[in-house]
Amino acid sequence: MGPEPSLPVSFPIKTLEDLKDGTYYRSFHYMFNKSTVPLKGVATATAKRPRLLACHDYKGGYLDDQWIQGSENGSAYTLTNWRLLDIFIYFSHNLVTLPPPSWVNAAHRHGVQVLGTFITEWDDGYAKCQELCATEENAIMYASLLAELAQALGFDGWLVNIENKVIDLVPNLKVFVSQLTDSMHAWVPGSTVIWYDSVTVDGSLRWQNRLNDKNMPFFEISDSFFTNYSWQKEYAKESGDLAGEHRRFDVYMGVDVFGRNTYGGGGYQCDVALKAAREAEVSAALFAPGWTYENNKDDNRWWGLIAECWSDARLDPVQLPFFTNFDVGHGRATFIEGRQVSELPWSNLSCQSLQPLLRVEVSSLKQVSITSSRDPPIYSGGSSIHMIGDINTDELCLYQLYRTAVHVEDLHHETSLDVSYSVRVESSSKFALVLKTEDHLGACSIHFLLDMEEEDNNATSITKYEIGHTSVIFDYYKRKGECRTSADTRAEASGTEFDSCKSLSNREYTLTKEKYTITGVFGVCSTADDLRPLLIKLLHENESVFEPGNFLVQEEKEKDGDAQTEEIKANYRAVLGHISLADSSHDCHFSNKDQRFVGTNISWAEGNAGEKFVSVKLVWRGHVEKFTWERFHVYARTRRDEVPLQYLGMAMVEAFYVYELAVSKQATPITFYLQPQCSCGKVQDLSTCPTYKIDVPHPSSAVWMRSQPSLKDWLFV
Fold first, then answer.
1. Which of 391, 469, 587, 599 is least crowded, fewest Cβ atoms below 10 Å from its Cβ?
2. 450 φ, ψ (degrees, to nearest 5)
3. CA–CA distance from 102 to each of 56, 107, 552, 651 (Å)?
4. What region holds the Cytosolic endo-beta-N-acetylglucosaminidase TIM barrel domain (predicted)?
């Protein structure tokens, strides 16, 4: 990939020469490949407990995820069960596999480290290793270059996999691994370098399927060890014992999900190997979890088996502001604040928000469905939470959304927390968001954010009960309004299970008290006219019902692109669109003052039928008054009377490449709009957003060039 403008893609480095010459940094695509989401919360890759790693290996890599600005495949491979993982490795059989930024952004948002892969294989790999390890200086140089790449692109380390003999090269290979580990720790504090069980200390390619004296020297100069898959149960304990008490969790027992000569058999039996690893008090590595997609297996069932034997200990979120729209990273259309802005299917893991637990804590229901769905209504992105069930008026369903550790305080030991969420309920259905808090003395409070208007505008919480050691507070919204909904949204919704004429309702609340920590976010479903008596009864019967739990998002199954929903008797229907928590002092700083928004690399093209197109790289300054936006939406107006604007896509970096946008026959100026989105979920009103205008050349101008095939028309190799 050279300096010529084209649709931004992620790509590997295939030769040591390209790695050495730094051609990657001169590519047009380099700046687009930088991840922008920092590792959230407390990284668990060094936690003193058995850890879980997932190694990507999906159909060779760089498929839909190579398109940094998103692909048009609304059902692309994705991963949502991040809370079970500590490390994610992006794998391919190229020399230097660089993780696409979308994977890094999604993983970091969930507190998961992301590693690239350095691999050499067979005869070609031996030739590369001869250059890599020709001298000690070479080994140090290449290791330093890999560390520099990781730091520049924002990922967290490397898997080193030498799948070829290295006879007579071992001394300098050890220099390479040691230098890579040291350089990564210097460039990216907290980073991880993992050695794969392949060559032995004598330079032979002999998989040991355990940690032993033949590969121990490589483990000693790296952070972790990833065993081959053909191990026996006793190997797990032997490996942990050899690693020692302080490093036994740095040993990852490999599990091939495809079941290729792997302990336990892989597939739906992966839990056999995981249980053996946990029993031995070592870690585990799942290779190719995309098996469920590649073989049309039940992804929910498979991850459910993993969750049963490998619980997580992560708290999400841990800081304010917090926003989730339940986006899984792909959709059938794109929505922003309840308004459909594009009807095209899409996938982009950078859009994935923090995934909820959806753990059902209390329910007497025989049939209840709480799922992530891509059917409207949707607040933003491409997903929402759909709740469908048969609920009597004396029943309720309580489920956990997030297990959190959000500290809310200010210098005066009192602060206001602004909470908003969007929901749509059908007929007699009721829904309430619930926050569990704990103050600095350990006293717990349960805040029920009800669908009832505040009776006293000067009071935020007007009903309070003490049940045991818990304070129960009923809060009422200070403001309620409909989310924006376009006619296109209603048309798209027709034929779904919900009334297509109704939009999401936005509820806003303010909580004011002394400093405290939010420890859990829950949802309550009921058909009762008044939720309060049921909730008080529930807490009297079981005060600990709001204790933290662990469960997985159950995303809808699909077949041939259509949602398959189990037929159940349902008198309860509701949709949850988003949740936002922010300190009342939080200010999005929306302003286009001094905002630099310009176009470069402008080119004009003419198609075979005389149609005309423009391509342009839009760039801007995303840091305004010490404030950094979370992402940017890009629109265009190609005709004076064009309403609504054309939605072009989303950018995480401070650039967006517009490829062959159709030009109006009237040759009117083209106006581009840049819409920032804050980390609290709010977007700037389009009427006040920065704009950039291009005058269209006269049809007879010499600037018009014959249109070339799109990069997407070619198979990426």
1. 469
2. -90, 160
3. 13, 9, 21, 11
4. 62-333
Interval 233-248 mean pLDDT: 98
Pure H helices in 440-587: 487-493, 531-541
Q: Binning pLDDT at 50, 70 and 90, where does residue 411 land?
A: very low
Taking residue 124's Cβ as centre, other Cβ atoms within 10 Å add up to: 11
Alpha carbon distance 14, 96 (integer Å): 6
- Tokens for 242, please give them: 């050899």
Nearest to 388 by CA among 421, 425, 358: 425
Burial bucket for residue 110 (CB in 10 Å: 0-12, 13-18, 19+):
buried
Q: Is the pLDDT of residue 3 over 60?
A: yes
pLDDT digits (tens, 9 = 90+) for 102-153: 999 999 999 999 999 999 999 999 999 999 999 999 999 999 999 999 999 9
Instruction: List CB contacts of 170: < 8 A, sequence separation 6 or more.
Output: 199, 201, 202, 203
With a CB cutoff of 8 Å and minimum separation 6, the contacts of 525 are 368, 387, 389, 391, 396, 397, 398, 399, 429, 430, 431, 572, 574
* 334-385 per-position pLDDT tens digit: 999 999 999 999 999 999 999 998 765 555 544 568 889 999 999 999 999 9
Q: Determine the pLDDT at residue 627.
A: 55
Cα distances (Å, whole numbers) of residue 205 to 130, 139, 200, 495, 580: 15, 20, 6, 59, 53
Q: From CA 609, how far away is CA 700, in angstroms rounded? A: 15
Q: What's the token pair of residue 710?
A: 């799109």
Please spell the DSSP secondary structure of 311-377, one letter per residue: -----S--SSSEEE----SEESSEEETTEEEE-S-EE-GGG--PPP--EEEEE--SSEEEEEE-SSP
- pTM for the model: 0.91
For residue 496, give both structure tokens.
Answer: 């779904």
- C-alpha pair distances (Å), 665 with each of 74, 221, 496, 639, 695: 31, 64, 38, 9, 13
Residue 459 dihedral angles phi and psi, to the nearest 5°: -125, 130
| Helices 136-153 and 122-132, packing angle to 10 deg | 100
Question: In 478-545, where do the E strands start and end?
Answer: 479-482, 505-514, 516-526
The two tokens of residue 367 are 């049939």
In this structure, are residues 370 and 504 in contact, taking their beta carbons and an 8 Å threshold?
A: no
CA-to-CA distance for 434 and 475, rounded, in angstroms? 10
* pLDDT above 60 for 211: yes
Per the CB < 8 A criterion, the answer to whether 151 and 118 are in contact is no
What angle is formed at CA 474 by the lines to CA 472 and CA 480, rounded to 5 degrees?
Answer: 155
Q: Where are the alpha helices (DSSP H) in 500-619?
A: 531-541
Which of 532, 537, 545 lies closest to 399 in space, CA to CA?
545
How far does CA 176 lie from the centroid of its chain? 32
The yes-or-no verdict on residue 199 having pLDDT over 80 is yes
Which pLDDT value is given to residue 560? 39
Query: Which domains does the chain carry?
Result: 16-309 (3.20.20.80), 322-557+564-583 (2.60.120.260), 597-713 (2.60.40.10)
